[in-house]
UniProtKB/TrEMBL annotation:
The chain crosses the membrane at residues 22-43. Signal peptide: none annotated. It is found in: Membrane. GO terms for cellular component: membrane. The keyword Transmembrane helix applies. Residues 35-78 form the G-protein coupled receptors family 1 profile domain. Keywords: Membrane, Transmembrane, Transmembrane helix. InterPro entries: GPCR_Rhodpsn, GPCR_Rhodpsn_7TM. This is G-protein coupled receptors family 1 profile domain-containing protein. GO terms for molecular function: G protein-coupled receptor activity.
Length: 105
């Protein structure tokens, strides 16, 4: 196999793994988005401007990037794991219901 050849063609992850990683991604997204929004809003709307040190601005910048990951990447990851689990369930159901009817007698 040369460069670019796929070793995983036709190989799917087990359904349990897909569902577990989907649930974990949902939990991470639920914790990531509001938590980072609170950090950003605390720095932006600080009435006494006590949170304007270089370290706090670095933390706010990290919160912005983490918010982008939580709001954009995590839903795509959830969608990918959902579709993967759906394909696995569909292939199992197809094997159960469609295969016996196609046997020539």
């Amino acid at each position: 196999m040369g460069l670019g050849a796929s070793h995983c063609v036709g190989v799917w992850a087990p359904t349990e793994v897909s569902i577990t990683t989907m649930v974990l991604a949902i939990l991470f997204m639920i914790a990531t988005v509001p938590g980072n929004l609170m950090v950003i809003l605390a720095v932006l709307f600080d009435p006494n401007k006590n949170l304007r040190s270089p370290f706090t601005l670095l933390v706010a910048n990290l919160a912005v990037t983490d918010l982008i990951v939580g709001a954009l990447v995590e839903p795509l990851s959830i969608n990918t794991h959902y579709r993967e689990a759906q394909v696995c369930v569909f292939s199992v159901l197809h094997g159960i219901f469609a295969e016996p009817g196609s046997v020539n007698r």
